[in-house]
Specification:
Layout (H helix, E strand, L loop, with lengths): L1 H17 L19 E13 L17 E8 L2 E6 L6 E7 L2 E4 L2 E7 L4 E15 L2 E13 L3 H8 L5 E11 L2
Antiparallel strand pairs: 1-2, 1-9, 2-3, 3-4, 4-5, 5-7, 6-7, 7-8, 8-9
Length: 174
């Protein structure tokens, strides 16, 4: 009796896994997730990390300004994002179900009377809540190269390299 019980318990998962399929199961794979194309507006923003002093203490209030980005689908696994700000670069983003990450972009400027180069690298990533809503985190990393970096650190009250992070929620317009 004990041996029969043991065999039954061992075979139960196999019987469940191989049992009859529900007649309502059409075995059609679900469609891949795709966010809505078009212009997206930031509706809420926070700055949880700012070692670089990029943002004013009331940075959350600046999120009330209307700005955003345009999202264009490339294929089922990638899309492009172009920010509203002048001179923005179009970024290629990779979609993994509802999660995404975008290629990093870097901007460099001369500071300290031209004696140093400040480079800020942005790395966006996030999660689509649904086709029309997204939560985005943008990591920022600032580095400095050149003889003027020490003077720039003293003037700005920061130490290079430094990091910042912006988190926002956006929704597609319309």
């Amino acid at each position: 009796m004990e041996e029969t019980m043991r065999r039954t318990l061992l075979l139960l998962p196999l019987a469940v896994a191989c049992g009859d399929k529900d007649a309502s199961d059409d075995s059609t794979p679900p469609e891949a997730f795709a966010p809505a194309e078009g212009h997206w507006s930031v509706i809420a923003q926070t700055v949880p990390l700012d070692e670089c002093g990029f943002f004013t203490p009331d940075a959350e209030d600046t999120a009330q300004e209307v700005y955003g980005f345009t999202l264009t689908l490339f294929n089922e696994a990638t899309f492009y994002v172009l920010g509203d700000e002048e001179g923005a670069e179009r970024l290629l983003c990779t979609l993994d179900d509802h999660d995404f990450s975008c290629e990093s972009s870097a901007r460099s400027d001369l500071i300290g009377g031209g004696q140093a180069t400040l480079t800020v690298t942005e790395s966006p990533a996030g999660t689509f809540v649904d086709e029309r809503h997204v939560n985005v985190q943008v990591g920022l990393e600032a580095t400095c190269e050149g003889s003027g970096c020490a003077a720039a650190e003293a003037q700005l009250g920061i130490t290079f390299p430094c990091s910042a992070r912006i988190e926002n929620s956006s929704e597609v317009d319309g």
